[in-house]
Model the fold of this input.
Amino acid sequence: MTQIPLGTHMYEAIHFAKKKKGWSDIKIDDAHGYPSNVDFGTFVGEKHFSVHAGDYRSILNLYFFVADVRIYFGFNENSELIDIRVRKEIDSL
Done:
């Protein structure tokens, strides 16, 4: 995401996310990073926020399943952006 480069302050990134069309449901956690998908039981960063970036249905699964896209922004102890993770979850109707 070139619009939110690494090193961006957490509150600048939150401000950007609040203004981004189609993004909603911002969840802020100043006490924990987000769970790592590589090392079970570990976290990325010292704090994070996540945002719902949208959802869609795909013709590949005959529109029976809804895919939700959530973006996680991880920050270090100085509130500087260190990592971004995009997660897609698919739910059935």
About this structure: DSSP finds one helix and six strands in the chain.
